[in-house]
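Lab channel / #folding
Pinned by the channel admin:
"Please post every new chain as: sequence first, then the structure tokens as a reply. Keep commentary short and put observations after the output so the thread stays searchable."

First post following the new format, from NK:
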Amino acid sequence: MNPASPLNPGTHSRLILVVEDEPTVLEFLREILQDEGLATEGFERADQAWEYLQERAADVALLLTDISMPGTLNGASLSNLCGERWPLLPIVIMSGFETPESSGVRYPVSFIRKPWTIGQVLDCVQGALKSAQG
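Reply from TO:
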């Protein structure tokens, strides 16, 4: 169990929502985070993640999403929807091509440029979780 205090009380308060359209990268990210004691839920499309969030947002401690992906929503539009509806939810965005600014993200997010290292992902996620705890 991760010694850091949970973001919110409850058993699923450390859940990280991972949204990445490349299946091998999605599984790798989930494995990295689970090795740190964090629970994860993964989606290959932002549309699926948005549906999940509408039902289970209270369980989610952080959104980690790629920008570019197929479907109605991309990571930037998912981030904007989350920023509007859940302004306290920390968001980490990844991309090798765009930045949050160039993709139209309107809310504060953390950014990881691809290709990333495991250390960069863990540092960014842990930093976002800690700053959200205030």
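NK: The two ends are 21 Å apart (CA to CA).
TO: also worth noting, The chain has a mean pLDDT of 91.
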